[in-house]
Amino acid sequence: MNTLIGTDISAARHFLEAGHPIGIPTETVYGLAASALSPAAVARIFEVKNRPTFDPLIVHVPDAAAAQNYALHWPETARRLADAFWPGPLTLLLEKRDIVPDLVTAGLPRVGLRVPSHPLALQLLQTLSFPLAAPSANPFGYISPTTAQHVFDQLQSLIPYILDGGPCRVGVESTIIGFEDGKTVVYRLGGLSIEQLEQVAGPLTLQLHQSSNPAAPGMLTTHYAPRKPLYLGPIDELKERFPQLRAGLLTLCPLPQKSADILCISLSSEGDLNEAAQHLFAAMRLLDQSDVDAIFAEPMPETGLGRAINDRLKRAAV
Ligand code: TXA
Ligand code: MG
User: Fold this and answer.
1) Burial of 313: CB neighbours in 10 Å, binned 0-12, 13-18, 19+
2) In a shared domain, residues 148 and 290
3) Given this model, what pLDDT does residue 257 score?
4) Ligand 1 centroid vs 266 CA: distance in angstroms?
5) Closest atom, ligand 1, to C-alpha of 216
6) Do the Cβ atoms of 21 and 159 come closer than 8 Å?
7) Ligand 1: does its nearest atom lie under 6 Å from the Cβ of 62?
């Protein structure tokens, strides 16, 4: 299959209506999208991604009104969060309506819903008569794509079209929230910070490492891994521990230049954690494709998007 990259909404729509998964931009990462109401189209997503069918997919809708069609009950906090943060990097897990195929939710009782904050994605969703199921557009287990080229590099010939919306503004996946026994639970740290969420939802309960238990919401621990071994820790300590490795470095701020370092990527010259999140996955890909033996990554401060970055680095680390 020939894979085209473009900005043509009607071409994107044409392929989706024919049941093909395509690449779509969002503000977080690129998605591999197909009609969420067509089990056959959703099955193609799992095939193209090589993803186990026990790992459910997020359903993307154009606005909160459309989301009502797929979720039965809206706790008061869910309403407030949707009002405050949609469109945006927030996924709400809510009790699903029967119209959502079981394949989308992997047989779980809740559906993940999100309104992406990206002009092309929203334009596309508004022209369609169905919502879009979309996981990140990477082969299962690899780093999520943040440009159309990243999607092309890994899924070319498997999908007919990639809608090019430029580099993703947020750079890490959406924050996933659900509601249990009156508590607001965070299942995945992501592009919406805990601090921002707490201003609207009050205190949160974190349940982040459900790992590979398919019955539990959340994600598998093996996500986001580059092929090269990634070690997480203070760079100087890692250099002492592994003096024999030719390592590429991933840091927040630029390091004072030392000629001995082969390759060093700083995520933000000013130490801005939003900018760091934006650059994280592209930097990991670059290091993975370079000729270093390993990647040494330093932990970020545990505030704002630093938490989500650290979560992704931990999952990528050996
Ligand atoms: O930012 C994002 O969320 C991106 C863009 C494309 O929207 N999507 C994304 O999808 O990251 P994915 O499939 O790579 O990660 C979604 C995670 C999965 O680990 C899945 O286990 C969890 O969300 N999830 C989705 N639906 C769920 C459900 N019904 N119940 C429990 N967990 C769910
Ligand atoms: Mg993913």
Assistant:
1) buried
2) no
3) 72
4) 28
5) 31
6) yes
7) no
- State the distance from the centre of ligand 1 to the C-alpha of 192, rounded, in angstroms: 14
- 12-33 tens-digit pLDDT: 999 999 999 999 999 999 999 9
Q: Is the CB of 103 under 6 A from ligand 1?
A: no
For residue 217, give the amino acid letter: P
Domain containing 256 equals 230-316
**pLDDT at residue 223, rounded to an integer:** 59
Question: Does residue 291 lie within any of the structural domains?
Answer: yes
* The total number of structural domains that make up the chain: 2
Same domain, 160 and 13: yes
Among 115, 173, 187, 223, the mutation site with the greatest number of ligand 1 atoms within 8 A of its Cβ is 173
Q: What is the CATH number of the domain that holds 273?
A: 3.40.50.11030
Whether the ω angle into residue 87 lies within 30 degrees of 0, i.e. cis, is yes
CB atoms < 10 A from the CB of 271, how many?
Answer: 16
pLDDT above 60 (res 197): yes
Same domain, 153 and 60: yes
pLDDT tens, position by position, 251-286 = 999 988 765 678 999 999 999 999 999 999 999 999
The atom of ligand 1 lying closest to the CA of 59 is 26
